[in-house]
UniProtKB/TrEMBL annotation:
HAMAP family: GPH_hydrolase_bact. This is Phosphoglycolate phosphatase. It catalyses: 2-phosphoglycolate + H2O = glycolate + phosphate. It comes from the Bacteria. Its EC number is 3.1.3.18. Pathway: Organic acid metabolism; glycolate biosynthesis; glycolate from 2-phosphoglycolate: step 1/1. Specifically catalyzes the dephosphorylation of 2-phosphoglycolate. Is involved in the dissimilation of the intracellular 2-phosphoglycolate formed during the DNA repair of 3'-phosphoglycolate ends, a major class of DNA lesions induced by oxidative stress. NCBIfam families: HAD-SF-IA-v1, HAD-SF-IA-v3, HAD-SF-IIIA, PGP_bact, PRK13222.1-2. Gene3D superfamilies: HAD superfamily/HAD-like, Putative phosphatase, domain 2. GO terms for cellular component: cytosol.
Length: 222
């Protein structure tokens, strides 16, 4: 791959395994609502499109479809309250993330985060896990009028850093990241381990798929 001038990185499923906290909050929410728990395995397939979408999926017990609006209106404040208290208690960085960030920083890449997670959760999570300081810009799901898979957050970051899209790479884990990168004219690298609704990310045809960010040094060596 051509050496980029800027690298943007997704958070959930790419840098951070946040499902343990999200699943805890989903199940606690369901308990308060008098409903059966969903379980971590189901939540792992549902994450990636923001907490509102996650709550809707939990209420109907599946990826696609819509709950009753009254049910959603009752559930969302409960989830937000729970997640504010449990943003990073169980979440962990994936193996290789620290080494990958160290390589990218050492190689002089400008680094940013682009996530669909709301800023009120993104910023504490990155700080609590000790990596916020490495990113010159964090674009959260509510920073701009549109979020991934729309290219707006990526193009916003490119403008912030003064970089052309063709000189930028997105690192993510889902088809949403691939679509956003393609629409923005970015290169796209995907992690094999992330959240993509149970589908193999290779089917989305990113430029490369890696198992650990440790592999970035060899991938970007050229």
């Amino acid at each position: 791959m051509l050496r980029p001038k800027m690298i943007l990185i997704d958070v959930d499923g790419t840098l951070v395994d946040s499902v343990p906290d999200l699943a805890f909050c989903v199940d606690a929410m369901m308990e308060r609502l008098g409903r059966p728990p969903c379980g971590e395995a189901s939540v792992r397939d549902w994450v990636g499109n923001g907490v509102e979408r996650l709550v809707r999926r939990a209420l109907i017990g599946q990826l696609d479809g819509e709950p009753e609006e009254a049910d959603f209106d009752a559930a969302l404040p409960i989830f937000l309250e729970l997640y504010a208290e449990n943003t990073s208690k169980r979440s962990v960085l994936y193996p290789g993330v620290i080494e990958g960030i160290a390589f990218m920083k050492g190689a002089g890449y400008q680094l940013g985060c682009v996530t669909n997670k709301a800023a009120q959760f993104t910023e504490p999570l990155l700080r609590d896990l000790g990596i916020r300081e490495h990113f010159g810009l964090v674009v959260s799901g509510d920073t701009l009028p549109k979020k991934k898979p729309d290219p707006m957050p990526l193009l916003h970051a490119a403008q912030h850093f003064g970089v052309e899209p063709a000189e930028a790479i997105m690192i993510g884990d889902s088809v949403s990241d691939v679509k956003a990168a393609r629409a923005a004219g970015f290169g796209i690298i995907c992690m094999s381990y992330g959240y993509n609704h149970g589908q193999d990310i290779r089917e989305a045809k990113p430029d490369a798929v890696i198992d650990s960010m440790v592999e970035l040094e060899q991938l970007l060596a050229g």
